[in-house]
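Students often ask why we bother encoding 3D structure as a string. The short answer is that it lets us treat folding as translation between two languages. Here is a chain of 226 residues written in the first language.
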Amino acid sequence: MENEKHGLLNKIESNYPKPEKKVRTKKSILVRVFNRIIIILALFIVILFAVYFLFLKNKPDNPITNIIAPPPKTEVTSALIKDQLSYWQEFVTFKYRYSNICTIKKTGRIFSAYTIVKYSGVIRAGIADITEAEIKISEDGKKLEIKLPEAEILGNEISSQEVFDEQKNIFMSVKTQEIFDKIEEDKMRAQDDLLTDGLLLNARNYAKEIITQIFLTAGFEEVIVE
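And here it is in the second language, the structure alphabet:
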């Protein structure tokens, strides 16, 4: 009886073979990894666009926004150029620092007095108001013409002064106003000497050179400054 059961079971098993075990190959593993990477990238792109439309769409200065949708190009106009020049206002292109020693003497029949003063100053020259420049831009926006105002002295100030030596007595002394008047006379002489040497011409030429280089760097193909 027992042998008959075993024979019957063997006969059934022979008719229905056991399923084969699936063997995972390297190729199948790589395919699964690749599919997962594709899914992760797709999710990342969806999240990126969701963040853009929800938070960054109205922020043109945001770097992510600029990559997805670059801001519109600003048209260069004469008004825009003047607006940029307005940041300079007083355009100093020449500075000259000087120092000197002046002596103020006073003499009488019996008494005398003197004061020796050492001082330093600076002379500034350039364009007083550069926004007064005349600006013309070509129709294609490639050529810029600027006519500058004349250069002028913007300042001549004493930056420091000290009494180097002096002699005075109760009957005679050098007054403070006399010292100021002497220094003023000397500093105006220094200014006149610079003007004779072409100070204003040099200041204007420096202004032309600086402005030309700035706007060539800004993208204009031709810049003429007069």
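Translate back mentally: Helices lie at 2-15, 26-56, 63-68, 78-85, 176-196, 199-217. Keep this in mind for the problem set.
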